[in-house]
Amino acid sequence: MAEITTVLMVRHGQTEWNSNGRWQGHADVPLDQTGREQAAAIARRLAKQTEWAIDTIISSDLHRAKETASTIGKAINRPLILDPIWRERDMGDFSGLTREQIRAAYPGVLEAERKVLGLIIPNGETGDHFWGRGAEAIAKVIREHAGKTVLVVSHGGILHVTVAGLLGMPRKHFGRLRFGNTSLSIMLFGENQPRLHLLNDTSHLQS
User: Per-residue pLDDT tens for 116-147?
Assistant: First the structure.
């Protein structure tokens, strides 16, 4: 019987740019106070649960993810590995802008096939590269941590392309999944196809 690799995925806590609707990408924006409270909430949840014995935490090296991961790591006493492969999509010249500002500066761009990752971002990451990076990132986790339970702390976009790719979703459906701040999603990997066990669970924020 093949060993099971369990990957828990958590999106970082809220930032001020999230609240203001600014596109972040690789901008190193810290958590705001709400984001720190969200990080503490998911940390408490993972510290109390007994179903998944987390071996290692892997995080994007961007501050908002790293701070969320560090909060969890302290709560469950697990090592933290920083890996830039788990960064959000590089938003290039769109970084720091709101949707309205992008529409004003680049008329028609946001309406041009955004949901199939066809959005062309000046000085940013292409949709094809982003999709491939998600596949490479999760393959690296499975290869290096086979049979273990790993927590990945990352960003909404990269988690989306990773999970969508694993489920075989067509790229034209990009945008139909949701990953809220500090949401928990879980994928199981064995000898068969990857299995989605949990998606976008934020019940820890309700208490």
Answer: 577 889 999 999 999 999 999 999 999 999 99
Determine whether 173 is an active site residue.
no
Domain count across the chain? 1
Burial of 16 (0-12, 13-18, 19+ CB in 10 A): middle
Catalytic residue among 26, 67, 88, 155: 88
Active site residue 12: yes
Q: Which of 12, 26, 155, 160 is catalytic?
A: 12
pTM above 0.85, yes or no: yes
* CATH number of the domain within which 162 lies: 3.40.50.1240
Whether the Cβ atoms of residue 56 and residue 78 lie closer than 8 Å to each other? yes
- The average confidence (pLDDT) of the chain is 93
Domain range spanning residue 15? Answer: 5-205
